[in-house]
Amino acid sequence: MADRERKTAAADDGRVPGSQGPVRGTGVGDGLSESMLEVLWHRRWTVLLTGILALGGAIAYLQRATPLYTSTSRVYVEQTGPKVFDKDEQGVMTRSTNYLFTQAELLQSTAILSEVLKTLDAEQIRTLANVSNPMLVLRRGLMTAVGRKDDLISISFKSPYPDEAAHVVNTVVDSYITFHDQRKRSTGAEVLRILKDEKTKRDDELVRKLKCMVEFRQKNEGLAFGTDQDSNVILRRLERLSEALTESQLAVVESQTFYRLAKEMANDPASLRQFVEAQRARGVYISVASEVASLRSDLNRIERDRADSLRELRPGHPAIAAVNAELERLKRQLLDLDVEYAKSQVAVAEQQYLTARKKEEELKKYFEEQRQQAILLNNQLAEYTILQSDYEQTKKLCDLLDDRIKELDVSAEVGALNISILETAEPATEPSDPQKARMIAMALGLGLFAGVGLALVREGKDQRLRSTEEISALLGLPVLGVIPSMASPRQTPAIRGQKVRISPDSREAEAFRV
C-alpha cells in the first residue's frame, strides 16, 4: 500500500517512478505542447498579480508626484519695417525666412529673461524660491514654439503653481515687447537724425542752384525762346548721366548711413545683429546664427549638467572644476564670435560705402566730360541745362529724403515690429503633468507585458506532468489507470491504508480495483 502511495505521489508530482527528477511535459513530442492561451490561462494569477502591482505602482507615483500646470500665450509677430530708401526694394527692412525662429530663440535669451527676473521678485515667486540659479530654472521651464501651419509663436511655462505659470508667461511676453520697443526707438531715432541732417544740407544746396538758374536767365535773353532740346543726343545723354548720378548719390547716402550705424553698434553685437538681420536685402548680411546657436546649445547643456552634478558633488570637486572651465571656454568663444562678427560686419559696410563712393566719382567724371561737350555745342543752352539738371537732381534727392523722413516719423509711433498678443496666458485648471490616463495605461500595458513574460519563464522552468496524455506521450505506453494521491493532512497513514475497505465506492478504491 505504501509503495502504491509513493507511485501515486510521484505521478501527481510530475515524475516518473525510477527517474531522477521531474520531466518537462512540454519538451517531448507534439502531444505535450501547450498553446499560448493554455499557458496564460494556467498562469493567469501571475499575469494578473503583475499587472495589479504595476498599476498600484503607477497609482502610488501619481499620488506622490507633484502636479505641474502649463500656461500658454500665443503672439503674432509681423515685421513691417521702416524704409530708409525706396529704390528697387533696396533699403527696406525685409523679413527673413527664419525670422520667427530667431524671435522664438530671442524669447529665451538672457537679455529677455534677465528683465523677467527683475520684474518677478524671485523671493516672492514660489517657483523660483530657494533655488541657486533662478535663470536656469526659468530657462528650463520656458518653452517656445513656432506654428507649423501658421506664423504664431507659442510661449509656455510649467510650474507647480498655476497662477505663477500664467504670471511668468505674461511677464516674458511683456519684457519681449519692451525690449523690441527700446531697440526700435534708439535705432529709428539715429536713422532719422542722419536723414534730417542730410535734408538740411540738400535744401541749402537746392536754394543756391535755383538762385543760379534765375540769375543766368536774367543775364542771357536768348533763353527766353525756350530750352527744349530733346532731339539733341548730347543733351539726352547728359540727362541720363544726371539720373544715374542721382541714383549713385542716393546709394552713397544709404551705404554711409548703414556704415555709421554699424560703427556705432560695433560695441553692442546683439543690437548690431538685430539691425543687420533687418537689413538682409541690402546684401551685407553675415550669418553666424548657426555657430551662435550651436555654442549656446552647448552652453545650456553644460549648465544643466553642472546643475545636476552639484546635486551629488561639492563645488570644489574636480569634475565641477572641469565643467566650470568648459563653461568659461564656451563663454569666451561666444564673446570672440560676437567681436569677430561686429568687425566683419563693419568691414563689409565700409567696403560697400567705398564702392558706392567710387561709383559716384566715376559717374561724376563721365558727367563732367559730357557737360564739357554740351558747353561746346551751345554755351548758353548747355550752361542753363547744366544748372537745370543740377537743380532737378538736388530737388529729387530732397523729395526722397522728405518722404523717408515722413515715413520714419510715422514708424516711430508704429514700430519696426507689430506684436499682437492673440492669447493671454491664463492659470490652468487641470495639471498637464503627470498625465494620469497615459501613466495608468502605460503601467497597465507594461505590467501585463511583464506578467506574460514572467508566466512564460515560470512555465519554462516547471517540469511537472499534469495529465495522463503527457505521461503516455512521454513513455510511449498507454496508461491503464491513475492512482490518486491520498496524502490528506487530516488522515493518518493507517486510515489511508484502509481507504478501499472504509470507502469501497470512492475514486481511490475504484482506481485500485482497476
Describe this structure in words.
65% of the residues lie in helices and 8% in strands. It has helices at 2-12, 36-42, 44-64, 99-107, 110-119, 134-141, 162-219, 233-264, 269-278, 289-310, 318-377, 379-414, 436-461, 468-475, 493-497, 499-502, 507-513; strands at 69-79, 83-87, 90-92, 142-146, 152-159, 417-423. It folds into three domains: 1-17 and 467-514, no CATH class; 26-65 and 436-462, no CATH class; 69-423, no CATH class. The longest helix is centred in the last third of the chain and has 60 residues, at 318-377. A four-stranded antiparallel β-sheet has the order 4-5-1-6. The model is unreliable at 1-33 and 82-95 (pLDDT under 50). The chain has 514 residues and is an alpha+beta fold. A hairpin with a 5-residue loop joins strand 4 and strand 5.
